[in-house]
């Protein structure tokens, strides 16, 4: 009889433990199994990506439509090449869309914002966005501001 | 001088011998052919003692640590106008560091010391020797279920700690200090990565559980079977396993999150 | 120091069927030698007692027979197999034929009396539960504690705990039962019960009993053959009657319980008066 209550409580304990794992996965880390690895990839070259990292979000009008999956330096163009994975239901990005690196808040994380263009053709998987705008680097900005002050 | 060298050598040798014996115990109890039929009820019992009975202390301390983190994080972050990031801060520090480390420290104090004292007392009352004489290997009968229970319970307890902590921080930050709950959870979900944060925290918890139970079981099995010896062994369990946890935490963090 | 043995002829005729033979055993703990060449032969089916003052390593001897310790040199042969050379697995096999009653009883504190006695049976056999129940009740009946089967070890008195431990030691009907100080710390009634029990069980079950003890009167009353150990050596052996006739001072001191003799009352110390005068207690 004592063994039975013990077994029940152990079962309960294991259940709570695995529930905790599920909560951590879904609620805390926002793991979304459904959209993982099913999107298509597009690329963009930037002169300067600032502090952009992999897993940064890719958004359009503030809505997330994908994430950065890989960043590397293109040895021919000497520019950063960013690989993005776009959710499969977002299949309407026109070829003349532009991508820019934005910062959420003053010191927040950097992400890629995509502004759609007017072309009828849409981006196919593996294609490049040519119209890009680099990250806003705070030091450059401060530097320019100070130069202006001095020259005045 | 020569005396000092001799003492140093003697201490080094005896520590090495102790380490070797502990490895032997670990090997013989874990790798030795398990007897599953006998093993299962014993394992259940040990999970009960090691895990279920540690649940309350884990939940309570997780709740309070989460609440403190929420409060402290808020008061610091509000100066920079980024109090929305409190969820992110709390979740990252809990999942990566505090949950495995604090759980392991509590586990060493709550379950580790109890394991050492129990096994030490079994040795002092000749129960281990009498098992041997009955023809049952005490390493398999007594030590192995406790080791396995430790491996199983630590990660579960650590995850429960993290969840309760995040929830406690939400209680303070969202319900009390009035941060918008959407930004609390969204910031958290955006910055916490399942593979690199949750799974790495889990790996830490498994390693800590392994080390703490190993130390506890070894200290009990190798203690001097007197009341003084048992109390010393229990103290050593808590001290050694706390030091081991903190030291290993640095190494694991450097391996996982540092770009080495 | 030569082992004093009376008429060797009668002794060797008794020792024809030897179940445990210890040959030239030496063993030391750290730097302290405990046995310096001990030879003991234990006859089958008899009660053999190994006696000696405290601290002569009698319990160590039982552990050596059970293979829990390994000798520095010499050999221990139990039923034809040499214990020190056995591997871990074979050791557990041979231990199934041995039962051991520990000084403290060593009952498993997390099981009740019934489960304690049933434990060796459950571990080593696949018997159905009803049969185990019958065997356990039989063993408990033999030690007079059938009524206490549901008690936990913490609820037993010292004498009862030792009887339960005895029931557990004989639950698999071993060939050899070893008793480690069975009479220590028992009241006279419990002592009488145990003496009786050991004798009766030995006759009824036909196993070999090895008793390690320093309670001279009780042991003399049940043992068929005795070995006296002091300073790491066998100083005398023989039947109780033979032992009483031995003239050696050391044997006399032990058998008659004299406070001073070859085993000195005083731990080695400098001269008493001199130490008092010079206040020379170095710490």
TrEMBL record, chain A:
<dbReference type="InterPro" id="IPR003399">
    <property type="entry name" value="Mce/MlaD"/>
</dbReference>
<dbReference type="InterPro" id="IPR030970">
    <property type="entry name" value="ABC_MlaD"/>
</dbReference>
<dbReference type="Pfam" id="PF02470">
    <property type="entry name" value="MlaD"/>
</dbReference>
<dbReference type="InterPro" id="IPR052336">
    <property type="entry name" value="MlaD_Phospholipid_Transporter"/>
</dbReference>
<protein>
    <submittedName>
        <fullName>Putative phospholipid ABC transporter-binding protein mlaD</fullName>
    </submittedName>
</protein>
<feature type="domain" description="Mce/MlaD">
    <location>
        <begin position="39"/>
        <end position="117"/>
    </location>
</feature>
<dbReference type="GO" id="GO:0005543">
    <property type="term" value="F:phospholipid binding"/>
</dbReference>
<dbReference type="GO" id="GO:0005548">
    <property type="term" value="F:phospholipid transporter activity"/>
</dbReference>
UniProtKB/TrEMBL annotation, chain B:
<comment type="similarity">
    <text>Belongs to the MlaE permease family.</text>
</comment>
<feature type="transmembrane region" description="Helical">
    <location>
        <begin position="238"/>
        <end position="257"/>
    </location>
</feature>
<dbReference type="Pfam" id="PF02405">
    <property type="entry name" value="MlaE"/>
</dbReference>
<keyword id="KW-0813">Transport</keyword>
<protein>
    <recommendedName>
        <fullName>Intermembrane phospholipid transport system permease protein MlaE</fullName>
    </recommendedName>
</protein>
<feature type="transmembrane region" description="Helical">
    <location>
        <begin position="194"/>
        <end position="217"/>
    </location>
</feature>
<comment type="function">
    <text>Part of the ABC transporter complex MlaFEDB, which is involved in a phospholipid transport pathway that maintains lipid asymmetry in the outer membrane by retrograde trafficking of phospholipids from the outer membrane to the inner membrane. Probably responsible for the translocation of the substrate across the membrane.</text>
</comment>
<dbReference type="InterPro" id="IPR053408">
    <property type="entry name" value="MlaE_Permease"/>
</dbReference>
<feature type="transmembrane region" description="Helical">
    <location>
        <begin position="147"/>
        <end position="174"/>
    </location>
</feature>
<dbReference type="InterPro" id="IPR003453">
    <property type="entry name" value="ABC_MlaE_roteobac"/>
</dbReference>
<keyword id="KW-1133">Transmembrane helix</keyword>
<dbReference type="InterPro" id="IPR030802">
    <property type="entry name" value="Permease_MalE"/>
</dbReference>
<keyword id="KW-0812">Transmembrane</keyword>
<keyword id="KW-1003">Cell membrane</keyword>
<keyword id="KW-0997">Cell inner membrane</keyword>
UniProtKB/TrEMBL annotation, chain C:
<dbReference type="InterPro" id="IPR003593">
    <property type="entry name" value="AAA+_ATPase"/>
</dbReference>
<keyword id="KW-0813">Transport</keyword>
<dbReference type="GO" id="GO:0005524">
    <property type="term" value="F:ATP binding"/>
</dbReference>
<dbReference type="GO" id="GO:0016887">
    <property type="term" value="F:ATP hydrolysis activity"/>
</dbReference>
<protein>
    <submittedName>
        <fullName>Putative ABC transporter ATP-binding protein</fullName>
    </submittedName>
</protein>
<dbReference type="InterPro" id="IPR027417">
    <property type="entry name" value="P-loop_NTPase"/>
</dbReference>
<dbReference type="InterPro" id="IPR017871">
    <property type="entry name" value="ABC_transporter-like_CS"/>
</dbReference>
<dbReference type="InterPro" id="IPR003439">
    <property type="entry name" value="ABC_transporter-like_ATP-bd"/>
</dbReference>
<dbReference type="Pfam" id="PF00005">
    <property type="entry name" value="ABC_tran"/>
</dbReference>
<keyword id="KW-0067">ATP-binding</keyword>
<feature type="domain" description="ABC transporter">
    <location>
        <begin position="20"/>
        <end position="256"/>
    </location>
</feature>
<keyword id="KW-0547">Nucleotide-binding</keyword>
């Amino acid at each position: 009889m004592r063994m039975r209550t013990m077994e029940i409580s152990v079962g309960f304990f294991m259940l709570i433990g695995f529930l905790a794992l599920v909560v951590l996965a879904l609620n805390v880390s926002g793991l979304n199994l459904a959209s993982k690895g099913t999107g298509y990839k597009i690329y963009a070259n930037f002169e300067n990506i600032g502090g952009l990292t992999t897993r940064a979000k890719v958004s359009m009008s503030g809505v997330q439509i994908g994430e950065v999956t890989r960043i590397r330096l293109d040895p021919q163009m000497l520019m950063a090449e960013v690989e993005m994975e776009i959710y499969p239901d977002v299949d309407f990005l026109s070829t003349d869309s532009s991508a820019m690196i934005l910062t959420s808040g003053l010191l927040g994380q950097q992400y890629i914002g995509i502004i759609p263009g007017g072309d009828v053709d849409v981006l196919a998987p593996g294609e490049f966005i040519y119209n890009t705008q680099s990250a806003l680097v705070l030091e450059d900005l401060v530097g320019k501001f100070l130069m202006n002050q001095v020259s005045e | 001088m020569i005396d000092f060298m001799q003492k140093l050598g003697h201490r080094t040798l005896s520590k090495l011998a102790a380490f070797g014996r502990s490895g032997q115990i670990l090997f013989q109890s874990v790798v030795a052919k398990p007897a599953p039929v006998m093993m299962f009820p014993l394992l259940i019992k040990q999970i009960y003692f090691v895990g279920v009975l540690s649940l309350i202390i884990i939940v309570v301390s997780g709740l309070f640590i989460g609440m403190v983190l929420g409060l402290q994080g808020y008061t610091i972050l509000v100066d920079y106008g980024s109090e929305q990031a409190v969820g992110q801060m709390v979740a990252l520090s809990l999942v990566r560091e505090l949950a495995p480390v604090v759980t392991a420290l509590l586990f060493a104090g709550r379950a580790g010391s109890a394991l050492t004292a129990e096994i030490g007392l079994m040795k002092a009352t000749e129960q281990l020797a009498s098992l041997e004489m009955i023809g049952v290997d005490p390493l398999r009968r007594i030590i192995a279920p406790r080791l396995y229970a430790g491996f199983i319970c630590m990660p579960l307890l650590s995850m429960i700690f993290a969840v309760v902590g995040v929830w406690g921080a939400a209680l303070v930050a969202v319900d009390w200090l009035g941060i918008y709950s959407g930004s609390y959870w969204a910031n958290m979900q955006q910055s916490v990565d399942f593979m690199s944060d949750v799974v790495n925290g889990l790996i830490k918890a498994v390693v800590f559980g392994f080390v703490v139970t190993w130390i506890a079981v070894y200290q009990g099995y190798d203690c001097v079977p007197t009341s003084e010896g048992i109390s010393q062994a229990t103290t050593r369990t808590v001290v050694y396993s706390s030091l081991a946890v903190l030291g290993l935490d640095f190494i694991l963090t450097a391996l996982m999150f540092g770009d080495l | 120091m030569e082992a004093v043995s009376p008429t060797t002829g009668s002794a060797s005729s008794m020792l024809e069927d030897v179940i445990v033979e210890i040959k030239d055993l030496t063993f030391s703990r750290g730097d302290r030698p405990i046995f310096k060449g001990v030879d003991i032969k234990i006859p089958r089916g008899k009660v053999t007692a190994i006696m000696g003052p405290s601290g002569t390593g009698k319990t160590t001897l039982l552990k050596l027979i059970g293979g829990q310790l390994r000798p520095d040199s010499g050999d221990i042969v139990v039923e034809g197999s040499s214990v020190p050379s056995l591997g871990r697995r074979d050791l557990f096999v041979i231990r199934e034929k041995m039962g051991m009653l520990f000084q403290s009883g060593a009952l498993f504190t997390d099981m009740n009396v019934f489960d304690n006695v049933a434990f060796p049976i459950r571990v080593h056999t696949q018997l159905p539960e009803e049969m185990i129940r019958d065997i356990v009740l039989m063993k408990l009946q033999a030690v007079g504690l059938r009524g206490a089967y549901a008690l936990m070890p913490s609820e037993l008195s010292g004498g009862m705990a030792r009887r339960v431990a005895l029931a557990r030691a004989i639950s698999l009907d071993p060939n050899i039962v070893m008793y480690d100080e069975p009479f220590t710390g028992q009241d006279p009634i419990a002592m009488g019960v145990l003496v009786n029990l050991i004798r009766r069980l030995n006759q009824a079950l036909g196993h070999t009993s090895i008793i390690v003890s320093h309670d001279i009167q009780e042991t003399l009353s049940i043992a068929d053959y005795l070995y006296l150990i002091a300073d790491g050596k066998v100083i005398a052996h023989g039947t109780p009657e033979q032992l009483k006739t031995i003239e050696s001072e050391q044997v006399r001191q032990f058998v008659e319980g004299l406070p001073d003799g070859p085993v000195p009352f005083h731990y080695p110390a400098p001269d008493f008066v001199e130490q008092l005068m010079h206040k020379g207690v170095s710490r």
